[in-house]
Structures are given as structure tokens and as C-alpha cells.
Design goal:
7-stranded mixed β-sheet; alpha+beta; 6 helices; 183 residues
């Protein structure tokens, strides 16, 4: 898989049915994306008005495509907009697409977009110790582990840690210049 095969972009109106099926047909992703928060499968209308609307607008959420086929999404939200504290996330929806490095190829595009489009100095990513693939991805991309809140996530009878990562604009620019130089 190469960077050219994995891209991010806003959704198209014509993709509404396809994306609803993508998000709801294999919901194994919900077991890694904060499963300690309540989740119910959205109705088609709920999906169209919320998740799809954000994907279509393309500002706070975009699609990840692999060779043109939608496979996931990247997003951000404000932890505290007045202090410019931003957190981002990534989901690969179909379990058949896991383990291919798609998030590691899509996230650099999203992070670079966030730093260029928003007046921020840091991009944060919070996961949990029950998602070791996300932790490895964050570290591979140069994020620093900034906090580990021990045993604060309870899921299926076990306690897990909340793990917070961050990358500063200067660190990302340094990484980008090294990546560009090596190309």
C-alpha cells in the first residue's frame, strides 16, 4: 500500500447509501473506538443528518479512500476551542481492512491539513490501552505520549488506561521536512 493509494477527501452526495452500509454493516470497529461509551446503530436518517453531513461538509470529518474506495474516516473535535485544544481520530470501518497500515497513511494527510487550515499549535489523539494498534500508529507517526490515566476505562469487566498523545506544529513540520527530504 502506498501513500498515493490512500487519500482523504470530503464525501460525495452520491455516496450516502454506500457509506451508510460501510459504517453499519461490520460494527466491529465500535469495539475499539471508545467502546465504553454507549453506541447504537444509527438509522439511515440519523446517519445522513449527522455523520454523513460532517463527511460531506469535509471540515471536521473526511473519508479515507483506498484506491478510490471509501474505507474509513478521519475527524477532529474541539476539547476546548477557546484555548485551541483540538483532538482528532481515525476509524477504519471494515475489519477486513485492518492491519494494512491505512490509518498510518491517512493520518499524516489529515494532520498536515489541520495544521495548515487551523490556527493551532498541537494535535491531540486520545485512545485506550485496549487499542494497541492505535497506540502503535500514534507512536509511529511521531506523537508523544503525554499522559496515561490508569484504569479509568471500564469495559467488559476489565479496567483499561486512557492514553493521550500529542504532536506539536514544530515537531510535525520537522517530521514533514525530513520525510520530504528523504523522498
Amino acid at each position: 500500500m502506498t501513500q498515493n493509494e490512500v487519500t482523504i477527501r470530503p464525501a460525495r452526495l452520491s455516496e450516502l447509501d454506500e457509506l451508510y452500509h460501510l459504517v453499519t454493516s461490520d460494527e466491529a470497529w465500535t469495539q475499539f473506538n471508545g467502546p465504553y461509551f454507549p453506541y447504537t446503530t444509527p438509522s439511515f436518517t440519523e446517519f445522513a443528518q449527522s455523520t454523513f453531513s460532517r463527511m460531506y461538509e469535509g471540515k471536521t470529518m473526511q473519508l479515507i479512500t483506498m484506491s478510490g474506495r471509501p474505507v474509513g474516516s478521519v475527524s477532529y473535535y474541539w476539547e476546548c476551542e477557546s484555548t485551541r485544544w483540538l483532538e482528532m481520530g481515525v476509524i477504519i470501518y471494515q475489519s477486513d481492512d485492518w492491519g494494512k497500515g491505512l490509518a498510518a497513511l491517512a493520518l499524516p494527510q489529515w494532520i498536515s491539513h489541520l495544521f495548515s487550515a487551523l490556527e493551532i499549535e498541537r494535535v491531540g489523539l486520545t485512545t485506550w490501552s485496549g487499542n494497541p494498534r492505535m497506540m502503535a500508529c500514534a507512536e509511529k507517526l511521531g506523537f508523544q505520549q503525554e499522559a496515561r490515566l490508569r484504569k479509568v476505562r471500564y469495559f467488559q469487566g476489565e479496567y483499561y488506561d486512557s492514553v493521550k498523545y500529542g504532536v506539536l506544529r514544530s515537531e510535525w513540520e520537522q517530521r514533514d521536512s525530513c520525510v520530504s527530504f528523504e523522498s
